[in-house]
C-alpha cells in the first residue's frame, strides 16, 4: 500500500523478484490493473461510482488470485494498491473489510518516499484534474499509513485467523531488508539512531556513520532513518533565510533542489531510488523547482494560543521516527556525541525507547567522542546498554538475534503454506 509518487508498482515487483530468487514462488498483482480505464475512475465525480468500480476491481483481483493458486498449488501473492486514492480534495475509496478478509494478508507494508521525490514524480506525469502540493502529499502519506493500520487492526479483530502488522517502510531501504521483514520473523528488527543534521557538511564523520549502517544492514532487519529525507526543502529555505535574512525567499518564487542536498545512499542500495521511474538508466528527478509558498506551508513554525509549535515537516519527522521505533525490537544509538554535542533528535529517540516504547536499547560511545557530561542524553544513559567498542556491540546484537531466531513464535510466510 502507499500514496502516489512512491513508485509502488516498481517497488512491489522488485521486492517480489528479489524474494523469488531464494526459490519462493511469488507473484505480484495490483488491484488498479483490474480497473479498465484508471484515469476516468480517478477523476470521476461521485464517491459512490468510484467505490463501485474499486469494489468490482478488488473482486476481480481476488478471483484471479484464487484461480492462480488453484492451478499452481500455493505460493505467495504480493498485492499492491494505492489506498486511498486522492483527487479533488477527497480521499477514496473506503477500505472494504470483506475483501481484505478474503485476501487474508500475513503482513501489510505501507510504502513511503521523500516528499520532494513524490512531488516531482507526480508533477512530471500527464496532467489530471488535480494538482498536489507538498502538504497534500504529506497528508496523503499519513492517511495511507492510517488506512494500513485500520485494515490490520480490523483483520486482527475479525477472527479471520490472520493477525497482520502494518509496517511503514521507505522504498529506499535495501531489497534484503524487505526480504527479512517479510520472510524471516526471527530476524532482529533494529532502528538505528544517529545525528543527521549536524553531520551533513562533515564527510569524514558521515563516512563513519555509513560504515556502521552497512554493518547493521548486513546482519539485521534495519529501519534506517536516512532512507526517508523530508526536510530538504525546509533546510534549503532556512539556509536562504540565514544568508539573506527574514523574507529573503520570495513567496512567489521557487527553490531549486539539485540532489546534492541529500545524504547519499550509494548506487544500488535502494529498492527504488531517485530516478524518475526508479529504473536503471532512467533520468533523475533532480534538479527540481518547488514553489516557495508550498515550502512555507509545511516548513513554517505554527503560532498557537499554547505557544510555538514546530512545522508540519518537523512534527511528522518526529512521529515517523517514533513509529519506526515502535516497529523495531530494539534501538541502536551510534556515537551520540559524534558531532561534539548530542542532537535533540537522538536524545528524543532514546527517551522514547526507554520511557514509552519500553525497549532494551544500546548505545556506542567511544572514548574519542569525549566524556558524556550533562545534558538530556546523560539522564537517559542509565536506561541504555553502553559500549565503548563497536565490535562488542555488534557481537552482542548478533547474540540477541540468534536468541530471537531460536525462540521465534509463529510461522514465516515462506514455510510452505500460502503467504500474502
Description:
43% of the residues lie in helices and 14% in strands. The protein has 420 residues and is an alpha/beta fold. It has three domains: 8-185, Rossmann fold; 206-223 and 329-406; 232-305, no CATH class. Helix 1 (8-20) packs across helix 7 and helix 11 packs across helix 12. The radius of gyration is 22 Å and the shape is globular.
Q: From the alpha carbons, calculate the radius of gyration and give it in angstroms.
A: 22 Å
Which class of the largest domain in CATH terms? Alpha Beta
Secondary-structure arrangement, i.e. CATH architecture of the largest domain: 3-Layer(aba) Sandwich
Class from helix and strand fractions: alpha/beta
Spatial ordering of strands, largest sheet: 8-7-13-14-15
Number of strands: 15
Helical run tally: 14
Main pleated-sheet profile: 5 strands, parallel
Using brief descriptors, characterize the structure shown.
5-stranded parallel β-sheet; two-stranded parallel ribbon; alpha/beta; globular; disordered C terminus; 15 strands; Rossmann fold; 3 domains; 420 residues
Structure, briefly:
The chain is an alpha/beta fold. It has helices spanning 8-20, 38-43, 47-72, 97-103, 115-123, 134-157, 175-183, 203-219, 232-244, 292-299, 312-326, 344-356, 376-380, 390-406; strands spanning 26-30, 76-80, 85-87, 90-92, 108-112, 166-170, 189-193, 221-223, 254-257, 288-291, 302-304, 307-309, 330-334, 361-364, 385-387.
Amino acid at each position: 500500500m502507499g500514496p502516489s509518487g512512491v513508485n509502488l508498482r516498481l517497488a512491489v515487483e522488485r521486492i517480489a523478484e528479489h524474494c523469488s530468487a531464494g526459490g519462493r514462488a511469488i507473484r505480484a498483482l495490483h488491484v488498479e490493473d483490474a480497473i479498465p480505464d484508471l484515469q476516468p475512475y480517478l477523476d470521476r465525480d461521485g464517491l459512490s461510482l468510484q467505490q463501485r468500480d474499486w469494489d468490482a476491481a478488488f473482486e476481480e483481483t481476488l478471483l484471479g488470485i484464487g484461480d492462480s493458486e488453484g492451478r499452481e498449488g500455493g505460493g505467495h501473492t504480493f498485492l499492491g494498491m494505492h489506498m486511498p486514492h486522492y483527487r479533488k480534495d477527497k480521499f477514496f475509496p473506503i477500505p472494504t473489510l470483506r475483501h481484505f478478509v478474503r485476501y487474508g494478508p500475513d503482513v501489510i507494508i505501507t510504502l513511503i518516499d521523500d516528499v520532494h521525490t513524490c512531488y516531482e514524480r507526480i508533477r512530471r506525469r500527464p496532467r489530471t484534474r488535480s494538482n498536489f502540493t507538498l502538504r497534500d502529499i504529506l497528508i496523503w502519506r499519513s492517511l495511507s499509513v492510517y488506512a494500513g493500520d485500520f485494515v490490520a487492526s480490523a483483520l486482527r479483530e475479525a477472527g479471520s485467523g490472520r493477525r497482520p502488522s502494518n509496517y511503514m517502510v521507505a522504498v529506499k531501504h535495501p531489497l534484503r531488508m524487505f526480504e527479512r521483514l517479510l520472510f524471516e520473523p526471527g530476524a532482529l528488527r533494529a532502528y538505528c539512531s544517529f545525528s543527521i543534521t549536524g553531520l551533513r557538511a562533515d564527510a569524514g564523520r558521515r563516512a563513519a556513520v555509513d560504515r556502521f549502517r552497512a554493518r547493521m544492514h548486513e546482519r539485521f532487519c534495519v529501519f534506517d532513518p536516512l532512507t526517508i529525507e523530508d526536510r530538504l526543502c525546509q533546510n534549503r529555505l532556512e539556509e536562504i533565510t540565514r544568508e539573506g535574512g527574514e523574507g529573503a525567499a520570495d513567496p512567489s518564487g521557487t527553490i531549486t533542489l539539485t540532489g546534492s542536498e541529500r545524504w547519499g545512499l550509494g548506487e544500488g542500495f535502494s529498492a527504488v531510488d531517485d530516478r524518475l521511474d526508479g529504473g536503471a538508466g532512467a533520468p533523475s528527478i533532480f534538479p527540481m523547482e518547488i514553489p516557495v509558498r508550498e515550502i512555507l506551508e509545511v516548513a513554517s513554525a505554527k503560532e498557537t494560543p499554547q505557544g510555538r509549535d514546530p512545522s508540519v515537516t518537523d512534527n511528522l519527522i518526529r512521529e515517523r521516527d517514533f513509529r519506526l521505533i515502535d516497529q523495531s525490537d530494539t534501538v541502536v544509538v551510534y556515537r551520540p556525541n559524534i558531532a561534539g554535542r548530542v542532537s535533540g533528535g537522538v536524545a528524543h529517540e532514546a527517551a522514547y525507547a526507554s520511557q514509552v516504547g519500553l525497549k532494551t536499547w544500546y548505545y556506542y560511545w567511544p572514548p574519542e567522542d569525549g566524556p558524556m557530561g550533562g545534558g538530556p542524553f546523560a539522564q537517559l544513559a542509565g536506561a541504555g546498554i553502553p559500549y565503548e567498542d563497536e565490535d562488542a556491540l555488534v557481537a552482542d546484537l548478533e547474540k540477541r538475534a540468534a536468541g530471537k531466531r531460536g525462540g521465534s513464535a509463529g510461522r514465516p510466510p515462506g514455510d510452505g503454506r500460502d503467504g500474502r
